[in-house]
Amino acid sequence: MKKFQTSVFIVMAGTLLSKVLGLIREVLLAQKYGTGYISDSFILSLNIPNVIISAVATAILTNYIPLFSKAEKESEERAAKFNGNLLIIFFIISTILIILFMIFTQPIVKIFAVGFDETGLNYLVNISRITIFCMYFIIMAHIFKGYLEYKGKFLGTSLYGICMNIGMIAGIILSSTEHYQILGLGVLLGYILAFIVLFILSRKNKFTAKFNLNLKDDYLKELVVLTIPILLNDVVWQINGIVDKSISSTIGEGYISAINYSHYIVDMVTSVFATSIVTVFFPNVIRTFREKGIQQVKEKTNTILKLIVFISIPCTILISTYARAIVRLLFYRGAFDETSLQITSTAVAIYAVAIVFVSMKTILFKVFYALQDTKSPTKSAIISIALNIILSLILVKPLGYIGIIVGTVISSFVSTFLLIKMFNKNHEKLLDKTLWINVLKIGIASVIMLGVILILNCFTANLFIMNELVSEILKAIIGGIIGGVIYLVALFIMKFDFKVQQ
């Protein structure tokens, strides 16, 4: 238990620092370029190498741990050959994909930005021709991450995002409208730094690799079989993001940036808590399933889901209620004007509703993967993403960019609902009675918390006669503290089980 808590704390602290740096990155980008074609192109250029290779990298990371465990049990030399084979194969794949992208850059980037005019496309082409080389470092870094997590060393996972953001921040600071290509160089620098750090940590933890190209390797074949459904799952989620941004590009200039800024704020919450917990939880649940069976996995999952719901629902209320104050504090300066503030804060308030569903989905996906059931989450993803695309296309006309966000929120709920249904059908009933009772208590306490905050906002509406920004921040701080206390007191009165057993 103590080791689990320590590991979660390390990942959570690293993720928080990474997200803070990422937030600084977004603030600097917003201040320097506002919501325009350069900022839109920078954001899309980040997505291009991620869509092409990150889905593969994430799938490899998920399956690397159980397969490397098998190889290591066979012999250290077998494990070293497995590592070397993977590194060579993905270096070759990355090289081929980069060459194809450099040849067909123009038609490929048009897929990512269907609404861009010639000026916007030129920005995107020039930046993405630099960021595409990140592919080399993304895939190999994920292999090192998998090795370190298998060894129970989570410092590398924490430092990965920190290094990337340091490079990107440097690129934004050194760039200008005339030299916007430096933005791409900053992204590449960030990935190179992350790769170097993970390589050093892996070597210190006795990572070895015997380079040999063997396409007939049994573990490689098993990796491919297990990876395809996860890859498909990740690809459809990436496609979902592309479609959202492509639809946004048809609305007008700057909406991609506004939605991206809002998504980053919401993602910061889910990453710090849900992703940090699941990073440590995943290797643990694999061992639990192999040693103790499905029942123990269910108990651990219910405990983690209770913790996720306990954190995410009050976060949703606070972020939605004080969205304007949060966006004003973070972005309202430089080229980020009143129009940018309005569309971004509205997006944040609506996106926040998805926090609880995205967090639960993150946990449930890993549980399915630990049980070697990769088909169920893939089906769930395809259905929910198809729904998201349909809803976005339908709602964008009457609601504009808000329709795209609403479609995302609804699809997140559907995805979570389908995962629970599929678990119940394919395995055993997942959610026990105790969890539902705790969730009900959390819901009641959250409603009470919201009511108190709304009343408090009425009383403090004209309380602070000073700078508007300072007034909004003070109201948010007071509302957050009092609302949080009320939330905890209400749960205590209802005898909520605060224990987290792992």
Structure characterization notes:
The protein contains 18 helices and no strands. The model has no long low-confidence stretch (mean pLDDT 80). The radius of gyration is 23 Å and the shape is globular. With 502 residues, it is mostly helical.
Descriptors for this entry?
about 500 residues, 18 helices, globular
Quick overview of this protein structure:
This protein is an all-alpha fold and 502 residues long. Helices cover 84% and strands 0% of the residues. Helix 2 (37-74) packs across helix 6 (134-150).
Helices and strands in order:
Blueprint: H1 2-33, H2 37-74, H3 76-103, H4 105-112, H5 118-131, H6 134-150, H7 155-174, H8 182-204, H9 218-251, H10 255-292, H11 294-321, H12 323-331, H13 338-351, H14 355-370, H15 375-399, H16 401-426, H17 433-459, H18 468-493
